[in-house]
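Researcher: Predict the fold of Lysophospholipase, alpha-beta hydrolase superfamily.
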Amino acid sequence: MTVSTDLGYHQAVAQFDEPEGIGPRGTLVVLPGRGESPMVYERFGKRLAADGYRVRIVGEDAHADARAQLDSPAAVSPRILVGIDVGALRALHLVQDAAVEADALILVGLPAGDGSRTWDDEIDARASCPTQQARLTDPDLLTPGLLTADRIPPELRSVTPRTGLPVLALHGADDAVSPLADARARYADAPAVRLLSVTQGRHDVLNSLNHRSVAASVVVFLESLKVGSELPELIRKENVR
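Model: Structure tokens for Lysophospholipase, alpha-beta hydrolase superfamily follow.
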């Protein structure tokens, strides 16, 4: 794993590559949420890289970096844009404006409601995993106090999850920042969305108590996408009686 050092810590591009000798299976470009540095998603990047995917995590507001990573000669198809929190809105905005070309989207914790939080409960609202909660006390990883409605850029507030691309939507069943019922309603008109709720998941389900199961669900989505954009079932449950 390498991290570029030409920008500030919160704006560096974290890079996670497939193991040596393994052919890359695709590229994920990740857009973090409010107040988050790329390294908040280090665990996710390492886990997906171990399965053969190239993962690039850009800064919260780094539109140009997202485009550059998707257009890079090192980007291997399928190319997937992953957005968390406001990053999910930004990912939708980028593909809807044809600012980037991607083969699919993974949207995590799509904002709904006012998203207002105070520092006393912000870490608890973000992640349910104790290990991740401890990490988020590091000011190099998280700038506290930014998980508020006024931190959603005006140009993103009217963005809706309508796109013809395949979409994997991941949402915490216990998300107090963006309640699951509100998110479900927002996805109702999306033509090609697969919405999964995460038990004991809060706003960031990539770092939930069940983060291993979440990562496995992401891999299932990616592997299905490699077969076809209609996302065919690769493993089926068979009746034994």
